[in-house]
Amino acid sequence: MAAATTAATTASSSCPRTAQPAAPLSAVVDVGNMNDWQRKSPLDWEKYVNKMVKVAGVEKHEYEGWVLTVDPVSASIVLATFLENEQVSISVVLGHAVQEVEILKEGDDEMTQRLSGIFAPEESKAYSPEELEKRKNNLKAWLETNHIPVTEQGEAGRTLCVAGVLTIDPPYSPGECSSTNEIILSRVQGLIERYLENQQ
Question: What is the pTM of this model?
Answer without folding.
Answer: 0.48
